[in-house]
Amino acid sequence: MSSHREAPEIAKDPVADSSDLYAFVSPDHPDTVTLIANYVPLQLPSGGPNFFEFGDDVRYEIHIDNDGDGYPDVTYRFEFATEITNPNSFLYNTGPIESLDSKNWNRRQFYRLTRVVDGRERVLAHKLPCPPCNVGPLSTPKYHDLVRQATYKLSTGEKVFAGQRADGFFVDLGAIFDLGTLRPFQQLHVAGKKLFKTEGEPVNALDRTNVHSIAVQVPLGQVRRKASRYGYADRASTIGVWTTASRQQVRVLGDRVAADTAAGPFTQVSRLGNPLFNEVVVPMSRKDLWNTLSPAEDKRFAQFVEHPELAALLPTLYPGVFPNLEALNKSKKPRADLVAILLTGIPAGLIDGFANTTGDVQADMLRLNTAIKPNRKPDRFGVLGGDLAGFPNGRRVGDDVVSIALRAFAGLTVPLVDKTFKPDAAAAAVTPGLSAADVTAPFLGDFPFLGTPYDGFSNPPAKKS
């Protein structure tokens, strides 16, 4: 979660594993959108001497659909190359790294950025350097300076960054995957009631782990299709966003005289749009297939949105807590609310002042209405909390997407399409119990927004004598 190790095959390929995707109108520059895709999840900060990095043999892409067909109209492609300064040293660095061209830094990574519009490619930048991993106070003493040096404003208007960041996704993985336990409700769990007398304290399983992020801040005019106006109800205001990773189809392992080589066309091995989609909607037997497909083909997964397994599990795991949801499940009515949230976007008229529909094509994408301005005081529950600039209208780094998704699956959003349905009282309260306050590295107020990565020396913090 949100998409860490979410499918059997990609769990074996972490450098190509897309773990989180964010898309929001930039609060620091509201005439732009910020798109962030995280890869290489669950990084132990002290994981040297081979610290984490992007894959030189992986093509990373962030896609934007601005006409609602589920295919990319604009793509930002990141391709990486690694250089070793001293091939006779085992060390990542031989002294403090105080600049991106430091001679003390032995293993550097660079990338090429390409913008693809309607199939036409334009290389925006060659050999942009990434910052190093945050090794520790002796090796990377002024890490903020390195990040600043590695953040670029391009002549074409984009701002771009690629490198290590703190994982800002907060989730109690240990409890959720222990038979769907939610610690604030653990005493009500069908098995937990035998073990727990009171609610428990949640644990952010991803805190103090790092990821690698590709991030781009783009002027609105470069992601939206041309239109005479961009009001919240105008279709041209809404874009769909997803990220992918691809590998070449053939890999030949080398021997003592030849290096490994890759050949053939690139084929997609990872995908992410809405958080939790492949994680909790797509069944195990189809997760690897889903990762290879375009969002335009997601109609084949609509049955799992209309009748989600998670909605059926909640009344079973928490007997007596979700009686109205249980009755809805037994009625076999398709969950049109979830189809709108996850596959088509929410049409105008259901929520005052809001819409983010992209049309009839069912496609898993983060849908962002770019006409809705950033909220100066964001609510972590996004649209459910009355904050129309938050998830499922795109996704900001502090949005509590797990609680929002759980409440939607629990039936809180059914009245959007069925005014006669009364959600269970628990539907508005169900949560793993975490928030952005449970992320040790604070989010930033400007690009690239995700916090400074944890360093290996201080993680966990040294005990004072």
Automatic annotation (TrEMBL):
One Pfam family this sequence matches: DUF4331
Tell me what this protein is called: DUF4331 domain-containing protein
Taxonomic lineage of the native organism = Bacteria, Bacillati, Actinomycetota, Actinomycetes, Micromonosporales
